[in-house]
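Instructor's aside before we start: the two examples that follow are unrelated to each other. I chose them only because their records fit on one page, so don't look for a connection. First example below.
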Amino acid sequence: MLNRVHRTVKFLANTEGRGNVKPENIDFAIHNKVLEKYEELLFDVNRLVNRQNRGLVNGALENITDKVREKIQHYLEEQDVTVTDGIMGIPSKVRYFDTILYKETYIELCKNNKQFILSKSEANEENPIGLKTSNKIKVIPLTLDSVTISYLRNPIVAKWTYTVLSGVEMYDPGKSGFKEIDIHPSEEDDLIIRVLQSFGINLKEKDLQVLTEKIKNTEFNQEITN
């Protein structure tokens, strides 16, 4: 996916007017658009759930809500976290919490410090509570030693690695640091269109397949010529 995005952007963007778009600039645009799409998916699933609750969304394979949720679950992970003296650190890759589980009991996260303080006296291992701060979570009771967190992680930053030959950047995924685009596969075409827009190129989805074939033919002819 990453190489296809780079090939498409460079094919259209590397002109006399725009100059030579650097691979690092394309990677930067890709990551910005991945984050943009990420937040839109969260908004979309909430909007669709509201529509579903009003009976406006069909079920089974036509259930758009489930399809959007599947794209979000691309980022869903679980991890065991140690709790020390009622404090658990938040892993750096966590973007949004889903659930926190102690054995078979879910920890209820309080909305604010006031609710946390008022609920302390009633909290126990059967009814644990927590309060999220900037980089940690306070939990009650203090006897909790380990929990399992479910969360949506931050997208991995894509990196197109290359080797320079005769002044030209040649794709080299074997080099250290290569990172593929971190997005659900079904979002590839939409992502390409969004990245192209970052460089002032407006392309419709129906034209993308035609462009892809044109790029393949151009590269094939270049290989024959060389």
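Example two begins here.
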Amino acid sequence: MVAKSKEAIENRRKGTLERGRETTRLGADIGAIAQVANPERRAACRESLELFLTTYFPYSTGLSPFSDDHKRVITRIQDCIIRGGRFCNAVYRGFAKSTISENALLWAILYGHRRFGAIFAAEAGLADKAITSIKTELSDNDLLAEDFPEVCLPVRALEGKPQRCSSQTAGGKRTHIQWKKDTIVLPAIEGSVSGGAIITSKGLTGSILGLRHKSADGKQLRPDFVIVDDPQTRESAKSPMQCQARLEILLKSVMKLAGHTTSIACVVNATVIQVDDMVDQLLDQGKHPAWQGERIPMVRQFAKAHDGLWMDKYRELRCTFSSDVVGDQARAHTEANEFYLANRAEMDDGCMVSWASCFDPERENSAIQHAYNALIDDGEDVFMSEFQQTPLKDEATSTGLQPDDIRRRVIPVPRWIVPRGLDTLTVFVDVQQTLLYWAVLGWGHQFRGHVVAYGAYPEQPRAYFTLRDAKKTLAKVHGNNVEAAIHSGLEQVAAMLLDREFAREDDDAVLRVSQLCIDANWAQTQGVVRDFARRSKWGPRILPTHGRFVGASGQTISDKPPDRGERVGANWRTSTIGRQRHLLYDTNAWKTFVASRVKLPMGDPLGFTLHDGQHEMLAEQMSSEVPIRVESKMRVVDEWKLIPGRDNHLWDCVIGSAVAASFTGISAVGVQAKPAAARKVISREEMAAKRAALLSKLGGNR
């Protein structure tokens, strides 16, 4: 009886489980797919990307009429999707290139023109935005849902819950849909030309090698169409090394994703930011003959009244306002707008713009006015880059050091080895919150200089890095207390360099570092650096150092006579703070001096050289500043300015090491250090008399 009761209970349990499975199966089944609502509309767009963009996306690519430039770009994208090829479209900001890129990828996949489409952006965050935008269209665009129900209805059935993908069925058959963070696999619906197709989005500098997908029928799919949307950031565009790295990723990785048996089709939609940036180079037919491309400017021809009405009267009206009066800028803009309306025919005459719809209808009256507002508000430099695709070449940059100036200084002497004829070694440590940069330089007669070694602490796992993207930091190695981490880092760097014996090329000489200077400019670390130097076991071989910007109108560091016990040299002097000696130097003067040595021809006995190896990071940082010649009544000075977005820490290390060499006694032709001011010698009897007088005075004041 008991056995039968247990058997009945077990049967009921199994029945409940089976009914639950059936309920789940039925709940996961999306049923029959609806018919296409408008077959004619869908068929009409199959062979026309432009019609697809304007028909199915009324609130983005269909919002305003396309210009002739848009139509030409769209035709290129369509041709690339259908027939393949490599195209680069350099267009201005506001051209809707990102939206066109995303929607064009949908056209390629939904109509079965391509099976695996990938969109690459400059960074992972931008790639996430792209795939999110595509997902939104598939899940919320009613026009797409009406005409592509075999795709959109299964997507909508997920209700934004990716965990439903594995159990989703249509008519009892699994759809194999996937809805991942960066990848979409379209549902495999019987008769669908896009069933099982893939859309993915990646950051250009992320992990993209081996990008592939195995379909439900066991086929291995690789990308066959790629859209690269704005592949560079402002920071990377300013870095020759990063431009080269991104170009190599595009050419060596992205363009090889399809394998050797299939040619991948690729479209790059981007904006030129700097001269010789990644996009600027890609558009150079001499460098990249396999690519077709075009630069599309916002203004094809400026107005006949450009210098008169626009850049004189209109500009004056728009820019004349009180910065501290609320609403005065709006008043100035209104007056300028009224002036434009009163003189519109004359001001528009001769001007040709790319897109007549490109303006703010609430504040502007035409695309011509919008273009001139951008030119006036942002300046010619920004306008020529962001809107015209022809950035101005910075003449100041051309007068400073160039990366090739540094690359050409390499000689066949290994790292850590000192060339013949150099007998003095100096080190400078540039202190940052996350890293300590350092450089060891060897010096010889009349400031013959050589970079023996350089790097950063903690040591990074790659040869090229920026301060911003350093993976291994002081905090990770020594804890989050900034001062303590820097102190520990200085201990490690000093021990590594000051206790080291350096071999000299082709002889038995062994050299040690004569002087190590540490950057103490940062207020938060001044105490740490001084305390480290004061208590260091290496004594006077370590010296806190302060670089000073001395302009054309200021008194030079070496003009002032030395105080008692101070030394004054070539644009440097020693001083004392709380009994702690430190070194002050003129950054402008020393940068100009070192740059002149770097520019000497190879073979010059006073030239500047580098150890054997690749020096892309050093070359970039040593060319990160430009000299601006400034003249005053007193003198002419090259004032060095940092190029925005660039690192200059190793450049500072090279300069600081040169100052340290001068401090140790190395001098250039005609440059001699002034002797220290003589200390007054006081006898013991005089000291005792002074002490007695002081005690008497103190006693009398009680």
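The longest strand covers residues 422-431.
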